[in-house]
Amino acid sequence: MPARRVTAFAPGRVNVIGEHTDYNGGLALPFAIREGVTVEATALAPGSDRVEVRATDLGEHDSFPLREPGRAGGWRAFVRGAVAELDAAGRPLVAMRVEIAATVPRGAGLSSSAALTVSLCLAMTALADSPDAGALDRLELARLCSRVENDWTGAHTGLLDQLASLYGDADEAMRIDFAELTVTPVPLRLHGWRFAVADSGQRHAHASSGYNERRAECASACEQLGVTTLSEADAAQVAMLPEPLRRRARHVLGENERVREAVQALQAGDIRSLAALLDASHASLRDLYEVSTPAVEATVAALHAAGAAGARVMGGGFGGAVLALLPPGTELPAGATEVAPGPGAHVL
Ligand code: GLA
Fold first, then answer.
1. Which of 155, 234, 236, 287 is disulfide-compatible with 206, CB 3.0–4.6 A?
2. Amino acid 131: pLDDT
3. What is the pLDDT of residues 249-272, one digit of tens each?
């Protein structure tokens, strides 16, 4: 018998370092945060073939047939896409009422979209859980959630956000290798330092920002070099690329190296070096990858002025959040929020 009601939670994420490396077969070091999206799914009476959705905090709703959700915009695309992709993957589904409540701000660079998609997929599969369906492992689920984002919302994002949400753990960051698709826990011992995020105030939507353009540039660089991902290329190959592709590829190789150094810095308890790596990552994202904006630059400068030892644009860029590392004893800058690792996505 399917469960009558299921609640799932999936967190947003902070990416310590390793930006625009996921779809380039590189490395990243994210952690799941405590804020996220909660989805409550309740089975409807037998005979119904609909999905009724309420986004509690937005005061909005949606309703569509279970077997043919059809297209819609905004947050509705994620719900319809989740249903359609689970169905296409052969997962059992039941007619249901779905309530969505978020504690992670939308479009602010903390991965609210992945939190929403992961939470929806977890709740929906758990509600219709059937022993014959077999378990969907976390990697498969991350891929499915990524298809929802790619094919239903038009944002050609990688797997960073979904993996971070699914593999998060309290007190830990994780080193993700996107070539091998492996996730290795890295204890986040900060010795009194704190991470904080500040909103640049500029909303971003990956489907309409320069994000897809950057992906296309990387694909074109790979084609010219005859490699599958930019992380396979070496510096000599990259030097042969025309601009701006050379700048994009230099960012990717440099950023992979910074992830390796960041893991070492954390292991050595050298948080000041980690902060310097954040600054170096920002400079590369601004000058080589060109995903910063005046609003982001102003936010980075304000965080430095308030005592941050390192600060950088986080996530896709073109607005969104800035991540800062604050030395012990530094007050939280105005408008910034402290972020700390929390548990990964789970059914409650
Ligand atoms: C967004 C995307 C991720 C990743 C980052 C940049 O958050 O959703 O897949 O590409 O941008 O690192």
1. 155
2. 64
3. 999 999 999 999 999 999 999 999
Quote the ligand 1 centre to 103 CA distance (angstroms): 20
d(CA 144, CA 85): 7
22 as an active site residue: the answer is: no
Residue 99 to residue 79: CA distance in whole angstroms: 11
Say if CB 155 and CB 212 are below 8 A apart: yes
CB 79 within 8 A of CB 16: no
Give the mean model confidence (pLDDT) for residues 73-85: 97
Q: What's the rounded mean pLDDT across residues 113-132? A: 91
> Residue 8: which of 42, 52, 34, 38 has the closest Cα?
38
The domains located in the chain, with CATH, are 5-181 (3.30.230.10), 190-339 (3.30.70.890)
Residues 6+ apart with CB under 8 A from 62: 51, 52, 53, 55, 72, 76, 79, 80
CB neighbours of residue 267 within 10 Å: 11
Q: Which entry of 129, 161, 171, 199 is annotated as an active-site residue? A: 161
| 3 state DSSP class of 227 | coil
